[in-house]
């Protein structure tokens, strides 16, 4: 078993034991394919996204946890948020530049829920139309510029 | 493997939950396993040396602690030696540099010569007969002005000095014999 698989098993175990509020995983599907996780998220209570359900797709490369996973929203409900493009790509620094191997699926989920929670106005990023037309399928291939740390 | 691990952990959690959380204290922050060849950063975070080394190699120009993002470097981590630890190396890690050494300083020597205790104990004095033209028993005054101490036993330096000291003892013996016969 590679160190990546070992670590993912460990995370899965911890997530099953103490699932954070509003985060759900389908253990069966993960056991079938360890490198792609689908995580169900719920908007936090005191936020604009209360009661909404979202799905996140995590894809792990061989270099995980030294390299960040690919994380994007999938499904038919992509949150309308200034940092989330309509194709599901998320502009969040910990997913690329600020990634650290001490982060985990759980902490990424919590960061995303918190990012949604601090939103005050539901709107798409200003460059959404252009980005969605020109971007790569892999959000990690985008050169992100992190300029707005308010939302 | 994970499934059995999970079952074991699940089964054990009821009876020895505290033991398990105690073990979690000593888990590497990167692989989440019990730290192996453990090192601790100056900011106090525990890692396996192989894990931390891989991370530092991943971003060589921005070395930060994975947990708190403090600046970190290979030289500034402290290895942890537990009592039960064995220093067996995993043969798969040929590329891995050895864990940095712990820094050990010699304790201050105080009052070794009570009669000559000049405050700091750094004053040495020896008497001898000055014999032409080489003083076998040279008299010298040494103020201990920052000369390096004797090398650690076992080091190459130590062995070298042992050999040298034997050679000089031999020369001195020849001289004594010559002096007596002449």
UniProtKB/TrEMBL annotation, chain A:
Coiled coil: none annotated. Its EC number is 2.3.2.23, 2.3.2.25. GO terms for molecular function: ubiquitin conjugating enzyme activity. Keywords: Transferase, Ubl conjugation pathway. PROSITE patterns: UBC_2 (PS50127). It comes from the Eukaryota. SMART domains: UBCc (SM00212). GO terms for biological process: protein ubiquitination. Residues 3-151 form the UBC core domain. Pfam families: UQ_con. It catalyses: S-ubiquitinyl-[E1 ubiquitin-activating enzyme]-L-cysteine + [acceptor protein]-N-terminal-amino acid = [E1 ubiquitin-activating enzyme]-L-cysteine + N-terminal-ubiquitinyl-[acceptor protein]; S-ubiquitinyl-[E1 ubiquitin-activating enzyme]-L-cysteine + [E2 ubiquitin-conjugating enzyme]-L-cysteine = [E1 ubiquitin-activating enzyme]-L-cysteine + S-ubiquitinyl-[E2 ubiquitin-conjugating enzyme]-L-cysteine. It is an enzyme of class 2 (transferase). This is N-terminal E2 ubiquitin-conjugating enzyme.
From TrEMBL, chain B:
One of its GO terms (biological process) is ubiquitin-dependent protein catabolic process. Pathway: Protein modification; protein ubiquitination. It is found in: Endomembrane system. Keywords: Membrane, Metal-binding, Transferase, Transmembrane, Transmembrane helix, Ubl conjugation pathway, Zinc, Zinc-finger. Its main location: membrane. Residues 28-69 form the RING-type domain. It is an enzyme of class 2 (transferase). It comes from the Eukaryota. Residues 85-97 have a biased composition (Basic and acidic residues). PROSITE patterns: ZF_RING_1 (PS00518), ZF_RING_2 (PS50089). One of its GO terms (cellular component) is endoplasmic reticulum. The chain crosses the membrane at residues 123-143, 163-181. It catalyses: S-ubiquitinyl-[E2 ubiquitin-conjugating enzyme]-L-cysteine + [acceptor protein]-L-lysine = [E2 ubiquitin-conjugating enzyme]-L-cysteine + N(6)-ubiquitinyl-[acceptor protein]-L-lysine. Residues 80-111 are annotated as: Disordered. Gene3D superfamilies: Zinc/RING finger domain, C3HC4 (zinc finger). GO terms for molecular function: ubiquitin protein ligase activity; zinc ion binding. Its EC number is 2.3.2.27. This is RING-type E3 ubiquitin transferase.
């Amino acid at each position: 078993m590679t160190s990546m698989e070992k670590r993912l098993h460990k995370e899965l175990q911890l997530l099953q034991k103490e699932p954070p509020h509003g985060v759900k995983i389908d253990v069966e599907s993960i056991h079938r394919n360890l490198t792609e996780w689908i995580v169900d998220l719920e908007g936090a209570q005191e936020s604009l996204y209360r009661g909404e359900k979202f799905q996140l797709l995590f894809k792990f490369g061989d270099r995980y946890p030294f390299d960040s996973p690919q994380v994007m929203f999938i499904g038919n409900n992509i949150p309308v948020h200034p940092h989330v493009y309509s194709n599901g790509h998320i502009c969040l620094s910990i997913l690329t530049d600020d990634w650290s191997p001490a982060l985990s699926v759980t902490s990424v989920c919590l960061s995303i829920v918190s990012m949604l929670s601090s939103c005050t106005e539901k709107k798409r990023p200003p460059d959404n139309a252009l980005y969605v037309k020109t971007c790569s399928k892999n959000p990690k291939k985008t050169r992100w510029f992190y300029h707005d740390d308010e939302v | 493997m994970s499934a059995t691990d999970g079952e074991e952990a699940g089964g054990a959690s009821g009876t020895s939950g505290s033991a398990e959380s105690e073990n979690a204290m000593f888990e590497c922050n990167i692989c989440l396993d019990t730290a192996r060849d453990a090192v601790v950063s100056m900011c106090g975070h525990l890692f396996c040396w192989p894990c931390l080394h891989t991370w530092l190699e991943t971003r060589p120009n921005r070395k930060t602690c994975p947990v708190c993002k403090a600046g970190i470097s290979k030289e500034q981590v402290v290895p942890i030696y537990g009592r039960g630890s064995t220093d067996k190396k995993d043969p798969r890690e040929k590329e891995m540099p050895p864990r940095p050494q712990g820094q050990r300083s010699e304790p201050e020597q105080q009052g070794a010569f009570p009669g000559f205790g000049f405050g700091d104990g750094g004053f040495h004095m020896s008497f001898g007969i000055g014999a032409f033209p080489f003083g076998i028993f040279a008299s010298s005054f040494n103020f201990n002005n920052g000369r390096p101490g004797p090398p650690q036993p076992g080091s190459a330096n130590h062995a070298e000095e042992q050999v040298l000291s034997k050679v000089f003892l031999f020369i001195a013996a020849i001289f004594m014999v010559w002096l007596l016969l002449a």
